[in-house]
Write the structure tokens for this entry.
Amino acid sequence: MSEHNFKKKFGQNFLTDKNLLDAIVRDAGVSNEDSVLEIGAGAGALTAAIANRAKNVVSFEIDKDLEGELLGLGLKNATFVFGDALKTSMEQIEKYFDKEYKLVANLPYYITSPLIFKFLEESGKITSLTIMVQKEVAERIVSKKGGKDYGVLSVMISFFGSAVITRYVNRKMFYPVPNVDSAVVKIEIDRDKYKNIDKDKFAKFVKACFSMRRKTILNNLSSGLGVNKKEIALAIGEETCKKRAEDFSLEELIEIFNGI
Ligand code: SAM
């Protein structure tokens, strides 16, 4: 591994501490009946810890230079796919899984949000995501109404399930050492939670609500959805109009959405 040319553009900060790697797999609740998807195999340290507990693991890695290292590990229940997980269609990814699966990953930070949204919005088989993310992103994910980090990510994740931070991880645990600390977040998916709500329309609504943090929900909805202010005020009420999106819980936002 010492000869590997670490690529910053791919977010290559690897883990080696076996206790930490095992702890992440335990946080994910992986058992020998589980199939696991990993995004970003790196040198395969987390892949090996997953393979040790899971039925099987499929791991995507964008950097072809790591192929020799990964195949050299000789992990019998691991399949490595060399390609960009973000650009691979959900259908293509899920061909590797005949039933439900868990995602476990030390994510490349530059694609954290799009990757989370991709799996929340497009997957029909994923049951949980246990992911190492930048500490600040983890705090945004679990934030509740009124909190400074509360926003689209927090709302949409509680729409699709629930999230907890399982552990904080100091930057010194990675090689090379990044300039941020990290945390592991576990997101459990509950697909039936709001199954009567059109998720694409709701996602668009939430993004509009939070588009300008300092503006009222009325102004944001009117400009974001291209709807006349009077019509919105009539549908959601004068009092609601004066508040900002961050003043509303998921349930309250759903009520406003249904009103419109
Ligand atoms: N899992 C390893 C570990 O914990 O040591 C590596 C984690 S490192 C933070 C992220 C890995 O994701 C890197 O190996 C990087 O090359 C890979 N990667 C970056 N972008 C990717 C993408 N779009 N699709 C698949 N892998 C990607």
